Predict the structure of Energy-coupling factor transporter transmembrane component T.
Amino acid sequence: MAVEMLSYIDRKSPVHHLSGVTKLVIFLMWSAASMLTYDTRVLFFLFLLSIIFFKISRVKLSEVKFVLIFILVFLVLNNIGIYLFSPQEGVRIYGTKHILFDISGRYNVTLEQIFYQFNITLKYFVVIPAALLFMVTTHPSEFASSLNKIGVNYKIAYAVSLALRYIPDIQRNFRTISHSQQARGIDLSKDENFFKRVKNVSAAIMPLVHSSLERIEVISNAMELRGFGKNKKRTWYSAKPFGKRDFLIVLIGLIILAASIIITFHDGSRYYNPFINR
């Protein structure tokens, strides 16, 4: 059976055993550290830690391959857009200009621009493993309880949980519908040309939408019959207790965040500049 995209992957690993609250807090701190800094040394250190955590989680690269490819395509488009709209951004930030070669007009390739866009790319590679790990190692119900514990209304948290649960359901429904259509002679394989495949795939969209709306109605009716939302608070069956390991990991996360901020802003700028003598 094909691996479901962004669905919970059950493994026996140290990352899976952590509380959902711990993973959420660490992810938020990790994202904050990577967004605040443009210090290449800090980003590279965080990137190495991300790879180590991904390895410890025992999640296979093939299980998140589709999402990685999608993000990498977006990353390439983002880098192209940055250069097209601001080809001298690196020069403006670092205050020097080392031209490798000219293209046309204001478009030239400089070491500063390459270094700036390298840092942008490195930011993606820092956050992507952390985000994927958080998504695939945290059960949707545990994720909802984590949101509720940090102050998010439980109705919103439960809605997020349902959305995450429904992602693999949509994928299974789509495969079922596409297999049914292929049995009727509609070709969705690579043997068909691209535009014909897009047209054939689009034929599965409407049945998928109708089945999704029916499922939403069934779930909403069931929740209403059970009195969901009547009380101001609720308990969570899937919530994990906050143990010593969780305290230790959160403490380490705080130390990493604090160290990243101190290293980044110690000279008054969040950009590490290798083009001038410090």
User: Anything to note?
Assistant: The mean pLDDT is 82. The longest strand covers residues 99-104. Residues 154-183 form the longest helix (30 residues).
